[in-house]
Structure formats: structure tokens, C-alpha cells
Amino acid sequence: MTDPISDYLTRLRNAIQANHRLVEIPASNMKKEITKILFEKGYILNYKFEDNSVQGNIKIALKYHPTNKLNAIRSLVRVSKPGLRKYAGHANLPKVMNGLGIAIISTSKGLMTDKEARNLNIGGEVICYIS
After folding, report:
1. CA-to-CA distance for 104 and 96, rounded, in angstroms?
2. DSSP secondary-structure letter at 101?
3. Radius of gyration, CA atoms only, the chain
4. pTM for this prediction
């Protein structure tokens, strides 16, 4: 596998389209941090890290609206790819849907959302957009 973050986003996207309640993804430190950000911002219902094998797994419970069964995540877009990295300075960090979505940024202080990076005046690699 050449791009594990893209695989992570694709597994989430496929589970949402199939209306699954739970998705299981192979773990890595970066995937764990992305999962924590998704939980803090209210895009997923819950998560659990399982370290039962060499790599471990992440179990993610997806969040659906109780009446109309729509998912909290509308779109997952991978921005920076292994073949073409995308970087942004603190002055030109992207806004997703005019602030309604989030962009996950990999900075020198770790993974964070675009709003947090803008407040700290640091830029970095734009990993993905989530709305």
C-alpha cells in the first residue's frame, strides 16, 4: 500500500455509502490522530483502538441522524498525496465550505484542524478536507 491515509479515507467513505454502523481500519499513529480529530469535531460517534496484533486496529462507530439517516460526514477529500504534496502557510490555510467543514493540517506541533493552525499562526501539509 503506497498511501495509507488515502486507504483510511476510502474505507470510511465506502462504509458511509453502504450505511454501515461500524468500520474497522488498520492502525497507525497518524490514523489515530485523524480519528481523534474526527471524534472531537463530532463527525464520528465513537472510536476504539485495539492493539491485539502487530499493527492493531481502529474501530470507528459512524454517526447518523436519528430521523433521516443521513451521515454526519458529507465528503472526504484527500488533498496532499505521496506524489504531490500540498503545503500552506499560516496566511493562506484553506477554509472548507466557508468554515463549515474542516481541513486537517500536519504541522510541526502535530495534526490539527485549519482553525487551530490559524490561531497558532503555523502552516503545514494539508492532509484532507472533511465536510
Report:
1. 10
2. S
3. 15
4. 0.94
pLDDT digits (tens, 9 = 90+) for 49-105: 998 878 899 999 999 988 888 999 999 999 999 999 999 999 999 999 998 999 999
Give the integer Cα–Cα distance in Å for 70 and 83: 34
Residue 22: name the closest of 75, 64, 69, 52 by CA: 64
Helix (H) or strand (E) holding 45: strand 44-50
Helices (H), 18-104: 29-40
For residue 90, give the C-alpha cell. 499560516
Give the whole-angstrom CA distance, residue 63 versus residue 32.
18
Strand residue runs (E) in 82-123: 87-88, 102-107, 110-113
**By the 8 A CB rule, do 75 and 128 touch?**
no
